[in-house]
Amino acid sequence: MKKILFIDRYQFGYTTDTLKYCEHLNQQYKIRYVSFDLGWKKIKIPNVNTIYVPRYGNIVIRAVLFLIYAIVNCLFFDGAIFILYFPKCSLLKRILFWKKMHIDIRTLAVNTNLEERASINKQIQKDIAVFDSASFITQGVKEQISWSGKKYFILPLGADILSHTNKTFDELNLLYVGTLANRNIIDTVKGYENFTKLHPEIKSHYDIIGDSSGNELQELRQYVNEKGLNEHITLHGRLPYTALSTFFDSHNIGISYVPITDYYDHQPPTKTYEYILSGLVCVATSTYSNKKIITPTNGILHQDNAASFQNALETMLKNKEQYDSQLIRESLHKYQWENIIKESFLPIINSI
């Protein structure tokens, strides 16, 4: 049986992409997964050997400990080694220079500070240069990082079908799922507020699921309370992934709101895929990545401000009869995880 070793600083089961790789391939491959133990609930998958690195001491001690675990596991491993990028990961390849290793980049820096972004991206570029091959979430990310190696792959996001119900549009039920950090979700709240004022005859509701390490959730709650919007908007905070299917069943509009900036432009939001594959109409900001996904069949694009979001809802209301959940799902059929794994992930593993 073929073998795969994943090296990931994030706790196993909480990186969606590799979780799906393990779920789909655990009967065909012997999988070993080295990750930090971040103290979260441990996820178990049959035939996946999870090795947890304890988070002892300060940041330097933890980094050294993780590197030691990674080196030991790579040294005696005789299968494909797949590393999810982490700062200074190049040390692993420089020490074990004779071992063939693949590096995967899911995201570049998204800091709002230009100098910080440039510094982080320069470090990524330097780190990944030593690896035998690399994969990138989009072609745009690959071009931004200026990969100097000859062998690279595009490994796109995938998504599950979280709902099989066919949506109706007598009511407009909006759903946002994702982080609140640096997303300016307040813009969507203000746009929706204005929409409801203009259309009191339309029954609608907006559910927002997510949180951040900052004050965004608190600020949203304060705004909703001050404006008396509790009848129309519910802020749930963070919910487990297992709780989402109920929302995907009952809602018909998915909100994919990412600021239109150069550092978000090539970062495809996971929820754009999940909304569409679950038959929801996706109302999304017009980033480069969203423009590659959104079509008249499955959604509406708009600018990153409250007025444009409101206009998108007006367009949705006007054209609501034209949407069909089955056609919406079919528009992104190739992005289901089983297809991503077969067409994009396994060719990487077979090349290592």
Automatic annotation (TrEMBL):
Chain ranges of the Glycosyl transferase family domain: 174-324
Keywords of this entry: Glycosyltransferase, Membrane, Transferase, Transmembrane, Transmembrane helix
One matching Pfam family: Glycos_transf_1
Listed InterPro entries: Glyco_trans_1
Nucleus is among the record's keywords: no
Domain of life: Bacteria
Chain ranges passing through the membrane: 64-86
Residue stretches in coiled coil: none
Keyword Hydrolase: no
UniProt-recorded Gene Ontology molecular function terms: glycosyltransferase activity
PANTHER family named among the record's database cross-references: GLYCOSYLTRANSFERASE, TEICHURONIC ACID BIOSYNTHESIS GLYCOSYLTRANSFERASE TUAH-RELATED
Protein's name in the database: Glycosyl transferase family 1 domain-containing protein
Organism: Phocaeicola massiliensis B84634 = Timone 84634 = DSM 17679 = JCM 13223
Taxonomic lineage of the native organism: Bacteria, Pseudomonadati, Bacteroidota, Bacteroidia, Bacteroidales
